[in-house]
Amino acid sequence: MRTALIDPAADRKPGWSRRRFVKALGATVVVAGTGALGYRIHDTAALSSGHGEAYDPWRHWRETPGLLGAVAAAVLAASPHNTQPWLFGIRADAVDVYVDPTRDTGTVDPFHRERHVGLGCAIENLVLACRARGLLPDVTLLPDGPSGARIAEVAVHDGPPVADPRYDAIGDRHTNRGPFEDRLIGLDTVTGLVDRTGTGDVEVRWIVDPEPRAALGGLLVDAAAALCADEQQSRDNFAWFRNDDEIQRHRDGLTLGGQGFGPLELAAAKVLPASSRTEGDQFWLDRTRTVHTATAAAYGVITTRTPDDRATQLTAGRLLERVHLTATSRGIALHHMNQITERMDREGATGFGPRFAALLPVGETPLLTFRVGYPVREAAPSPRRSAAQVLR
Ligand SMILES: Cc1cc2nc3c(=O)[nH]c(=O)nc-3n(C[C@H](O)[C@H](O)[C@H](O)COP(=O)(O)O)c2cc1C
User: Fold this and answer.
1) How many Cβ atoms are within 10 Å of 87's Cβ, its own excluded?
2) I need a surface site. Which of 147, 267, 351, 380 has the fewest CB within 10 A?
3) Ligand 1 pocket by C-beta < 6 Å: which residues?
4) In terms of CATH architecture, what is 53-172+381-390?
């Protein structure tokens, strides 16, 4: 049934771009209730998800001992557009975390909030991996001050190894951009994903009820449309898409294989000619409407009253990663969706801020948004540079 709409020769017809073909296929699969096409699909042919050296860090992180092993776990963390904006310095009894300022998403993250959230995600993995190795960590954020070189110092001393399901989930945590099952997720279940130890005023607000969920879904669609209509943001976004050759060379960025396709859709996308940036934008917009928001069982929003504070952003990243790891350990999928806050940073006070604020407690500013649900299929790993490649 899935192939019924597809002319086997379609990929060779002039005018049948990858996008049009996959869109037709996607429509068929949506009817079957399993459709999934990813966010911000562009003209990448990157399909070798999970193969080659770019994916080795997912296979070898546990076996590496000591602080190098902790860094091997840190590099598996989430980061905006998979920029991996980190560098690490290993000393005898500490790891220093640095930002790599060359890893930038331009107008998508003009104040580098997302970049610092990504660094916070890496710090969380680092901490869990130190504990698992019997190296008890003591974290100091911004030890040299807000504009100092080090983002964090994780000093360690010997202790008993600490077992933690979140540590065990590090190698299975992936952003899931595919469809989620049509199955409700209760407030108790989602609040149970949150461990706010040491997070100060950084909170997770859950949007579960149908009406606010629909309102946030509408905002996400509108923000995706605004981002696509903004040529510079669209270009800055596109810069981090990697095609097949680039994946093994760069070992970073977004790939077609990480977009939540089913096997048939992935195969279709592989054989077709590349579509353009603007076609890809339109495609992402379609999927935001018909898959991402349509199948979101609930949304989580990480909020704060101090969104411009670097330590707050790092703490929010630690919390985000912690939620994602706990969700992974419980079979719940998570998909980051930050186009609203990306538009808020771009547009200033007159933009999406007031509409988002209406869904949140008074005085709290959204930093990060994600959807959760029970996945139709597992998400694929994304490429990574190895620990050795990110040592300073
Ligand atoms: C701060 C931040 C913002 C992100 N924003 C988005 C987003 O808007 N849409 C999306 O699909 N993924 C988003 N992601 C997920 C990253 O693209 C993802 O972490 C990265 O590609 C690595 O893939 P992985 O999480 O599967 O390991 C974001 C991640 C972080 C940490």
Assistant:
1) 18
2) 147
3) 39, 78-82, 114, 117-118, 121, 174-175, 177, 254, 258, 335-339, 382
4) 3-Layer(aba) Sandwich (3.40)
